[in-house]
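Final report, Chapter 2: Outcomes

The project's central promise was a pipeline that accepts a single protein chain and returns its three-dimensional structure in a standardized token representation, suitable for archiving and comparison. That pipeline is now operational. To close this chapter, we reproduce one record exactly as it appears in the project archive, with the input sequence first and the structure output second.
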Amino acid sequence: NTALTGLGAIALIANLVIAQTSGGYFDAPAATNALLHTWSLSVEEQFYLVFPVLLIVSLRFARRRPWAPAGVVAVVGLVSFVAAVAGSRGVSVSNSMLLAALNLILGFYSPVTRAWEFAAGCLLALGGRAVWGRPSRALSGLLGVIGVIGLGTSAFAIDDRTPFPGLWTLLPVLGTSLVILAGSSRNLVTRLLGSRTLVWVGDLSYSWYLWHWPFIVFAAEIWPTRPGVLVAAGVVAIAPAYASYRWVEEPLRRMPTEGLRPVRWVATLTVPVVAVSLGLLVATHLGFGSPTIRNLQDAALIQHAGERAGCDRIEPLSTRTALKCTWNSPAPGANVYLVGDSHADHYSEAVIGAAEMLNRPVVISTLSNCPFLTGFFARLEADWSVNSRCRAHTRDSLAYLTSQPSGTVIISNTDQMWISVKTALGVDENTARQARSEQREVLEVLLTETVRTLQSAQHDVVLVQDIPMRPGKYAFQPATCSVRDLLRGPHTCGADMPLAVVEPQQQPVRDVLAAVARATGARIIDPVPHMCPDGTCQIVSDGLVRMRDPGHISNAQSEALSETFTRAIG
């Protein structure tokens, strides 16, 4: 991800690269991308390329309409702000490709949702004095204080749970705008910001921004248990920042623009970055020459067959989606259906392998974070539209299954929804419960109803017990596992876990599935004996990497479970 981001930064599209590779700004892969901070620089450069065009177009009409430039910027800013708010509230679209495109356009890194922040500064430059006049010294001071308070508040009020960019973005943007307005006269804020020390920091700030994040990322990797080191790393970054400011940034700023000298400078600065990024990219794809790293890369990076084919999606199971998500279709046997959340998707290889052994087609339709279950379900920390789409997905998929010829339906859901994730569950919204003990009672009722609904349509039903959860030090964390760690051995990325560690938490949910199976005659698949021989849940066993991430099994482990699924399906 860092290598790709380096190439993207040179091409002024680091924000788009990061959105496609490292994911959300607060996700684990993003936190380990040493060039994550270049996303904002690319958005800035994209603005510099587009904004002059807008000005040129608007100035053609400015002879008789002096408000035209400011008007164009205001309209663009308003559209961008609406897009940012819409993006922060989530987009409800059934087509997965369209949803991915909209998330890219309306996401955190998008220039579309950030243009209004630039527009705020443009409006200050184009029309601030005309609208505000020259504020009095007292008013300027008040505006400055309010702006500083807004900026200070935003530093603490906005965190990884805040929908951003969105309405909350108004706080730092308006705070910054007020501080700029306060600069029209001398007051407390301008005296403070105009002090020699803060002017020096301001001069250095661009170079410091470039250097601080790589230092913090590598410090976090080398000393992961010492949080204070991250602050120290940011301070230490001042040294290279000062060097690059004095001997790179300032000479470039003063350089004559004619002749070949600027071209030579650009080549000198960019060619090494491109070469190093390409070299790192090749080395990564080769697993740095280590079979251990190559195996773990395959386990962590290769998606399961269902997700890879686009079958883990918001669109419910239907005739159209079944056509796209069927494997072994020429087989003459009855269909096998795999449904559930991401803990169903990670059995894709197992079910496809079993279907091939049994000479039966298999249809996969899953939706991450959405259990396949009748009734009312809601994750309390998720947007209402996400919960609504989840319930619709299950309802419509179940309706489709009951209309199909008899086959076998495999249901697999994660236990975490009923153990560690804040959820509400009930027959309907009015009866939804949040208490774990009450939820398990409701879970048994709703899962029994789901199974019997499918059985009434002449389907066989197979329930899959969840894999053991891996809390704390036992979690397999490939996203934060370094090459240095992997060369020492795969167990450095997570420890083998005694099954007894998680049995007390998961056993009540396992008992629910067992009770439903007894009551309905459904069959049970339990992967635990295979994954945790002798009561120890291993990450790697005889070259088999069992886990893909802390909560999902690898493709290789899924394939290894094919015989287990074959026996259960029959």
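Archive annotation: The longest helix spans residues 196-222.
This record, like all others produced under the grant, will remain available to the consortium after the project formally closes.
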